[in-house]
């Protein structure tokens, strides 16, 4: 482990060391002295210093309020790095939206970002039909105030009419894709797509019946299947008492194929999203080559 040692403040205010990436690091010995605990040796491992600064990041700032270039800033994680590492970590655990998941027949998605000076939250909504005969909106959230990163809850977006069910006595989905009625957010909808209508959309008879239904409804209603208010969306993530502003919302971006080990940090979309969150400038986000159309994720 590379060690940062406290030197003589009066003679040598800054002690230079090389970081893991080969760059020169300048660490204020006076600051190290403040961080030193009683009865501890005058030696600090990088991991220990990062832990202390994470608990009290103000120690890394100069009296002017700016982070000195080349000093403690170099061993602190930036907000952009925090965002990407959080998303990558969830992806490595497969707790991240996967549009080609064989158990979810994906139809539509939306990305929302909430932001304040101290809080950032990235929320995904994924409308899909599952092999458990559920038409749902899967909510996944990531952020520096989210207690559990990843899936938060599943909200049913299509419900059967009162007194009816979607399944037969054998537990199989029983719906006519050319004529069906459903409740969506408590409102009654009737759909009657012809076979040619479905084919023109790309919906074919060899798809699971639930996939045909949800993809047609998504095509007809669009964003109406998503959560309608920002407050309700935050509540679904356990942050209903918070008040971060809606910073960005989009249905178009380049989504990583984590099933094939492509992490969010390897995509221009999410790198630009992290920059936008760090700078507070939504125009920094670049959707890149949009691939959120469900037709692009069929095996």
Explain this structure:
By secondary structure, the protein is α+β, with helices and mostly antiparallel strands. It is built from seven helices and eleven strands. The strands form four sheets. It has a five-stranded antiparallel β-sheet, with helices on both faces. Strands 1-4 form a two-stranded antiparallel ribbon. It is globular, with a radius of gyration of 25 Å. The two termini are 46 Å apart.
Shape: globular
Spans with pLDDT under 50 lasting ≥5 residues? Answer: 1-49, 56-75
Structural class: alpha+beta
Q: Main sheet? A: 5 strands, antiparallel
Distance, first to last CA: 46 Å
- The total of helices stands at 7
Average pLDDT across residues?
81
Strand content: 15-25%
Produce the secondary structure layout.
Blueprint: E1 3-5, E2 14-18, E3 24-28, H1 29-35, E4 43-45, H2 46-55, H3 79-92, E5 104-115, E6 120-130, E7 135-143, E8 150-156, E9 180-184, E10 187-191, H4 195-201, H5 209-221, H6 230-236, E11 245-250, H7 268-279
Antiparallel strand pairs: 1-4, 2-3, 5-6, 5-11, 6-7, 7-8, 9-10
Features:
single chain, 299 residues, two-stranded antiparallel sheet, 7 helices
Q: How would you sum up this structure in a few lines?
A:
This protein has 299 residues and is an alpha+beta fold.
């Amino acid at each position: 482990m590379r060690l940062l040692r406290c030197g003589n403040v009066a003679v040598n205010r800054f002690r230079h060391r090389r970081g893991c990436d080969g760059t020169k690091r300048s660490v204020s010995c006076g600051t190290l002295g403040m961080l030193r605990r009683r009865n501890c040796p005058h030696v600090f491992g990088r991991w220990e210093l990062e832990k202390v600064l994470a608990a009290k990041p103000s120690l890394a700032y100069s009296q002017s309020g700016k982070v000195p270039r080349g000093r403690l800033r170099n061993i602190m994680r930036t907000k952009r790095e925090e965002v990407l590492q959080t998303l990558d970590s969830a992806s490595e655990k497969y707790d991240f939206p996967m549009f080609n998941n064989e158990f979810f027949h994906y139809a539509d998605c939306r990305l929302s970002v909430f932001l304040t000076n101290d809080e950032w939250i990235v929320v995904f909504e994924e409308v899909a039909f599952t092999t458990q005969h559920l038409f749902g909106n899967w909510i996944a959230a990531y952020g520096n105030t989210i207690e559990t990163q990843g899936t938060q809850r599943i909200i049913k977006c299509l419900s059967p009419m009162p007194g009816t069910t979607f399944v037969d006595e054998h537990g199989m989905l029983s719906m006519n894709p050319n004529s069906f009625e459903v409740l969506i957010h408590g409102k009654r909808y009737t759909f009657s797509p012809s076979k040619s209508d479905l084919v023109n959309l790309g919906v074919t008879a060899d798809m699971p019946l639930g996939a045909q239904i949800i993809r047609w409804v998504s095509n007809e209603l669009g964003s109406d299947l998503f959560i309608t208010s920002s407050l309700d969306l935050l509540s679904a993530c356990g942050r209903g008492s918070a008040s971060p502003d809606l910073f960005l919302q989009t249905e178009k971006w380049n989504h990583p194929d984590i099933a094939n080990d492509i992490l969010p940090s390897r995509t221009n979309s999410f790198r630009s999203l992290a920059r936008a969150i760090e700078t507070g400038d939504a125009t920094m986000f670049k959707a890149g080559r949009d691939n959120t159309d469900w037709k692009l994720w069929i095996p």
